Amino acid sequence: MADVTPRPLRTAEVIAVGxxxxxxxxxxxxxxxLAERLGSIGIELRAKAVVGDNRGDLAALFRQASERADVVxxxxxxxxxxxxxxxxxxxxxxxxxxxxxxEIVARLRQxxxxxxxxxxxxxxxxxxxxxxxTVLANPNGTAPGLLxxxxxxxxxxxxxxxxxxxxxxxxxxxxxxxxxxxxxxLHYLRVFVTGRTESHVEEAIQPIYxxxxxxxxxxxxxxxxxxxxxxxxxxxxxxxxAAARAMxxxxxxxxxxxxxxxxxxxxxxxxxVVVGEMLQAAGLTIAAAESCTGGLTxxxxxxxxxxxAYVRGGIVAYxxxxxxxxxxxxxxxxxxxxxxxxxxxxxxxxxxxxxxxADVGIGITGIAGPDGGSAQKPVGTVALALxxxxxxxxxxxxxxxxxxxxVKMLASQAALDMVxxxxxxxxxxxxx
Length: 432
Ligand code: ATP
Prior knowledge:
alpha/beta
């Protein structure tokens, strides 16, 4: 196979190599990152595969991919051990002999020496390079990447660990991929919706989005159910960035008009960021009293950089006596309504607001399961309440599906959404 003139790079395939990725404990996340980065420079990911450390299986997959795609990216299997096969298999399929690269050996020795260690001889495997390949520096690990140009295609070998893959791929984009792509780019819009099921969202927007498939530029729509939210992904491919943006702005406006306040984000921001920004804009602080969510809501709020500007703190009051002693929930409320009830959630919200000196308090109490449910209050029953300035109060009960961790996640989402809707709908809560 002789090298030919480079052609524009339009399509890619990714092969994740590693038997551990076929097991029940590890997931291939590299391809998600690669898909996003490839899309951003207009290269379409057409297929991806996960394969174990098996010579024959990897060779077959790689052979197919390299007959179809302009760019084939393999991640993993570049380590020093016997089961690290990627380099050997690729060299074999491409008919290029492996040669030791003295510079890589020197760099590896130096890397070990800088930690006061002798380099094990097995690491010399990582210095084996298929003839004619370009070596890609790996600032975060021992395995260098490799790039091979063959028949106008690019074959890229990257190590497995995501923290090594990511910076290496960014350099590759700048030096090798972007200069060889066409002018077309993929443009995205992500809209997040809450308070409706996937099918209700589909029902409401299907008549709106179907004509966009044949618009100019055409827009593809994907609806995905995620915990606590429905995600709408709109994608368009165009060489005219302004036209693509204008089209996606039209899409956004039509979707917001159809779904109203159930849309909480039109730019990929998660709920905790949206709520945080609303609190900050209103000049309000928040505190959370959590029972079944065990602090998850406060954890999510404080995942956001800068949240100290509006988060006062939280109290996890799991047992009834802590609800009384730490949040001033009157024991008779628990006795008469039960710990999972709107009056108790309201008392928790008022208690945490008062104790921590916040403008807005939220209370969450529910049954995460799998035990503890009853006929009147099945597993997944969660009471939520908000206590705000000037006697402002809201409470509601939700019935959430799923196992323990899903109920916790959905309950925290519903609590944050309650704050969001209160801030949107009621000027009273904004008036301190
Ligand atoms: P190195 O020698 O630098 O570790 P390697 O090429 O030998 O690189 P692997 O041994 O295949 O890499 O994988 C190393 C680690 O990276 C493992 O913990 C593995 O689970 C993780 N990993 C490998 N491939 C992926 C992937 N596609 N997505 C997410 N993690 C991955």
